[in-house]
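User: Structure tokens for this complex, please. No commentary.
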Amino acid sequence: MVKERRGSVILDKKDFENFFSLLAEKYTIFGPSQDDNGDAFTKIDSPQSLKLHYKNTHLSLKSYFFPQTETLLTFDNHMKITKGKENETEEQTKCSILFGVRPCDATAIYFLDKVFQESSPPDPYYVKRRSVTRIISFACTDPSSTCFCTSVACGPDSEKGSDIIFFELDGHYLVKQITQEGEEILEGVKELLKPVTDKHIEEKDRSMVAARHKLRKIFEVSNFVKKLENFEAPYWEKLHQKCLGCGICTYMCPTCHCFDMTDEVTGSGGRRVRTWDSCMFPLFTLHASGHNPRPTQKERMRQRLMHKFNYAPKIFGEVFCVGCGRCVVHCPVNLDLRSVVQQIMEEQ
Amino acid sequence: MKPSEHEIINTVKKLLADKKIDLFIGYEQGTLPLRTSPCFLVNPDDSNKLIWNSFCANNLTVYLSRIMPNGKNKKFKRIGILCKGCDSRSLTGLIREKQIKREDLYIIGISCQGIIDSRKLLPQLNSDEILSIDEDDDSIIVKLKSGEERFKRNHYLYDACLNCAYPTPGEYDMLVRTAKYAPQVSVPDPAVKEFMGKPREERWRIFEHELSKCIRCYACRNVCPNCYCKECFAEQTKPTWFGVTSERSDLLFYHLTRIFHQAGRCVDCGACVRACPMNINLRLFTRMLVDEVKERFGYEPGLSIKEQSVLAAFEIDDKQEFMTEPEKGT
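Assistant:
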């Protein structure tokens, strides 16, 4: 882990275009803009196409580092194996910046880092993408009604996963560097930056108090983690009743990271491909014998909740939920994670 | 409380108390604005949480083949269920395809006025806090923090509801009547007509563009009452029918197969398009099949338990130029 450094500066909004141009010289910039389904991260060529006032993007950022489909290696009939990424002739010369990321999505990347980068062995495909990407997040002042980040140890100004975080003030941005990489980015634009005053800090603090006020805390996550110790609790029998077993909650989730690997073989060779998988699917645990240790939606839904709220805290020291609310918004039967947590908390 | 809601609650309470049914599947208030959620009742006293309004979108019949796999459940021998017009057609299909027995069901049919598409109405509310929602025959009345607003019901209905020929169920044990809803039904569906009016290349482009958005969550399949297969082709591994990736060829293969499996069976309830998190217009393609089957064979699925399935029937004058003169095809 890079040592966190404290230090905030001020960028005038009128200097933002210059700031963006200077960044664009050194980095490829991805940011929020409009697509078919609302807001999405796309390559941004001019600051005008950035859409910084948005709620959460439709899909999370995870596919940027952990794509839904990834060829790990290819092989031919003579057993000549070519590794997926070394196939690429074009070496990436420029680092990328993900600009305007919501702190919840950045925090989710911080969690994925623990899985793919800090665990042993690290995942080379993830590590490579991560090492050439910087994250500049934007503190959230206008959360959605489905957001619950403050209930799960995240928050509208969570710094986890970000190299720099921006706070929008009246006429300015308060720019806070978080990592060494963040400092390097700011070094390149230092002529545009001004020192921060107490007034700015107060204004920032006020806006964050207001944002937190909008984000009602609905449960105490540490209590919930403990509550889940009872694997055979009777409430699992009924919680899943509505669940139809689709993969929306897991695929929209910024922290769900399960995958499958498949060898696809054709006449002349084949490839090994990694794809997203979901614990909501029966095939996820189906054995070759035909036995399925998670035979019904009860066991599958329990797995999803236990993994996020009980196993992850034990393994990684973090609850794997950032409260972005995507699973809440998109569940086709309105099986709301927040009410599921509340129901379990109310159980004796 | 609306009279219709009152009638449903009282009926269910009595059915459960008299042990005429062991389980009732209906709707309860959702946790999100303009949303309701399926609910399962075994206790007569819980009946009060049942609701009926223009946001009761889910096709509840999807749960029947899950609760009664192979048409049986030891605990729930007879199930009560609330059905709109389209849902009752799904149910008729399930009975006819022998997934469930008619005598194991108590069907409360409700004549439907069309369901409000929250994706159409929500943007009109400018993220203002909703205090309460009411409705009358013509309008949805939303009380917002900033004041009361009325929205013309017919402007915000789901596309499937706008062209629904059977808002009132045909199969039921008891019918709850609300105001009459008689949309102007056209075959082919206006969206299908517009699509078919485009040149072939443009149609292919739209088809590819829409389906390439898919993230393979299988929600379209899992919310569909017709998709009751114990083992779906999408999950068969010996052999695999198509690849596991999110690449275009795999996505198109999945969707083409799913769509074809709906031929002569889809009742255009719109559950798939409502569930899709990527807002893919799945209904466009299944509705094409609905219209095609109606035009060619004069058949609409789900209207009667006794009808013969179009794919299982053969008439000597059935149209077959798509085989004999394929070059004339569109």
